[in-house]
Amino acid sequence: MNDSATGQHRREHWRLNPAIDFLNHGSFGATPTVVLEAQRRFRDAMESDPIEFLAPERELLPKLDRVREVIAQLVNADARDIAWVRNATDGVNAVVQSFPLKPGDNVVVTNHGYNACSNAVRYAAERCGAEVRVAEIPFPIASPDEVVDAIERTIDDATRLLLVDHVTSPTGLVFPIEAIADVARRRGVRVLVDGAHAPGMVAIDLPRLGVDYYTANHHKWLCAPKTSGFLWVKPELQAQVRPTVISHAANRPIDGRSRFLSEFDWTGTFDPSPLLAVPAAIDFLDSLYPGGLTELMQSNHRLALQSRDRLCAALEIAPPAPDSMLGSLVALPLPVSDAPLQKILRDQHGFEFPIYPGPKPDTRLMRVSLQAYNDVEQIDRLADLLPKLLV
């Protein structure tokens, strides 16, 4: 079976509109049918006996702990250090709103950061009289060293916290987190990683990364249902980190559990089915290739490189980043224009992917995402179309 036929075959596992070439897995993910069915079974069980299913003192916590063990294994962490959040933005907010900033301190973000999370930093800093500094990382970029150098130049003696992406949302770059963390650690700066896109795209070994906080989504590259993510915090810092919603466990932690886990496990009535379906999502992804999730990530990376090369040829531009800095997202510069190109591509040609301002003024980027249901024929159609629309 050739690559295109394989992609078409795998597309049958998702409920995606067949009239759309969906090249935007990176925004909200897409959940396979088998995972949605697993979620539905959890919801049915919850509605058949809501108290027994949902009350923390009944069945809920053991179910959450089983998922915690699955995620802990995926990221090589201790399950006791993993809390649940709705998404990575929720996790970033929990850390920065809990962080002990004071007037004169500063927090460093990058110009490749996710706007929502950068806004969370600005909000927390403004409330405390702290400053937000932006590390200006180039794009196009020649080497991971340029990321480390830009961050090192921006950190100073007043820097207390660095927020950095593992995989950048606007530019699709895999940042060298270990090297960044080493620089920050030598300067006494704590590191918070927005890993929204990382699980299911790149391998994660949290102890090896050397960071202080790490938050990520399950609904993107792990293909779990929406509103499901995790927050990992080093044990010695967990007493400082509180959820953005304060509830019962603030003064009534659950016996045998840290306040960290108790507070994040229960912030009030919620639907735990997206979280409980995460193991089904990982099992499904593991089943797509003989080598499991690892082989899937490698396959998506190869397709991303192939797609980049074909689109760069069509646009007559050089690749904007080295192969080593790509996972399964590809961001490419486009000529600036007033034409509503994204709307034209969607409404007239059936392509779904974002086009948005770049990290520098008067620049524009397009971003395509490559998941198991995509194939190179979709990219070839796009590559043939783009030069005609950009005339």
UniProtKB/TrEMBL annotation:
Superkingdom of origin: Bacteria
GO molecular function, one term: isopenicillin-N epimerase activity
EC number assigned by the record: 5.1.1.17
Keyword Transit peptide: no
UniProt domain Aminotransferase class V: residue ranges: 32-382
Keyword Isomerase on entry: yes
Pfam families reported in the protein's UniProt record: Aminotran_5
SUPFAM superfamilies: PLP-dependent transferases
Keywords: Isomerase, Pyridoxal phosphate
Full protein name: Isopenicillin N epimerase
Naturally occurring in which organism (per UniProt): Rosistilla oblonga
